[in-house]
Amino acid sequence: MQIPYELALGWRYTRAGRATRRNGFISFISGVSMLGIALGVAALIIVLSVMNGFQKEVRDRMLSVVSHVEIFAPNGQAMQDVATTMRQAKQHPEVIGAAPFVAAQGLIARGEDMKGVIVRGIDPQREGEVTDLAAANAQVLQQLTPGSFNIVLGQELAHQMGVQVGDTVTLIAPSGQVTPAGVVPRLKQMTVAGTFDSGHYEYDSAMVMLHHEDAQRIFRLEGPTGIRLKLKNLHEAPRVVQELSGMITEFLYLRDWTQQNKTWFAAVQVEKRMMFIILTLIVAVAAFNLVSTLVMTVTDKRADIAILRTLGASPASIMGIFMVQGAMVGVIGTFAGLALGLLVACNIDVIVPAIEQALGASFLPKDIYLISKMPSEPQSSDIMPIAIISLILAFVATIYPSWRASRVNPAEALRYE
């Protein structure tokens, strides 16, 4: 099959040799443009992949404590029929686990130390169905039996309070009882049965767990305040919430995991969007370097353009030749950047430790940062737009110089040749 001469000439100009000083300089500028596009695309892929990795790591640690979906009664009241609601929720094909819980707030006191805490009453037999944290700490949570008034503290909270397994702490419920002296908060001595480490400071420093029946007695509730659900696919949680709202007969509120941490996820998305815009400007600068490359090429090839015009080439064909040249630089630079970016992003767990070892430094010290390893998760939803935008910018940058080439007057160009 015969290749169109516009494509053949455009490719020939792209790989022009360095026989003369002028051709060599043009080839150098073309190579710099190609390298700039490649580095810009690679930087975009690496940065967004690392941000995705951090988001996934924090999300997974968050979801080890937070369930995919929560069903709860209004105003922190006890649910009327927990068994029926659980049965109705489990009828949904996406639901693979359900467990009742009591959610409340209180104070933990030991000596003169006192801290506000999130109190979670759980069923140790079922909690492992809905959270990874419960499954990983099953032996500790089995000590939470009805009437024992044992309590499990977050590891950071236990460290701040200076308590160990077997020590006693006082749990204070804010809603007290009325006495002749006024409203007196309810206090209950609790035995520390163990600690948990979720890897998320917010929960490790402010959450305690006890059996839901003990929590009901302390907070004077007639039953659990809600039900936690685990889904097959956590990304389907918003849809499942909408469908469950029509399946459950009792008047209850439903909330998925994205709503519980809406501010944090929104902030991450804004950061990703801003990084995408900033790094895209790097690709844009490199792509528009093609303008200067093609302008110099057009100036250098004026005689060739004039000869082609006298041989019958149309202005559109001349324009196509130089657009092919610019597009080739953009395509090669984009695909080189994709290859480099994916290579680094997929092997960042090897590259970063090697750099740290070579420099004798630690980028993410364990004693400072929650995540001590550089995570990475390349996603096609990020990579495809990067490649498309890079190609579009390179194509747009070729339009004006190519149009100027098509307007070259053959007589004027050959006058001094």
From TrEMBL:
Location comes to:
Cell membrane
| Keyword Transmembrane helix applies | yes
Q: Which residues form the ABC3 transporter permease C-terminal domain?
A: 276-410
Residues in MacB-like periplasmic core domain copies = 30-243
Residue ranges spanning the membrane: these are 25-51, 276-298, 318-345, 383-403
Cited InterPro entries: ABC3_permease_C (IPR003838), Lipoprotein-release_system (IPR051447), LolCE_TM (IPR011925), MacB_PCD (IPR025857)
List UniProt keywords, sorted A-Z: Cell membrane, Lipoprotein, Membrane, Transmembrane, Transmembrane helix, Transport
Q: How does it sit in the membrane?
A: Multi-pass membrane protein
Against Pfam families, the record matches this protein to: FtsX, MacB_PCD
Which NCBIfam families would you find in this protein's record? Answer: lolCE
Which PANTHER family does the UniProt record give? LIPOPROTEIN-RELEASING SYSTEM TRANSMEMBRANE PROTEIN LOLE
Please give the family membership noted in the entry.
Answer: Belongs to the ABC-4 integral membrane protein family. LolC/E subfamily.
Q: What is this protein called?
A: Lipoprotein-releasing ABC transporter permease subunit
Q: Which organism is it from?
A: Comamonas jiangduensis
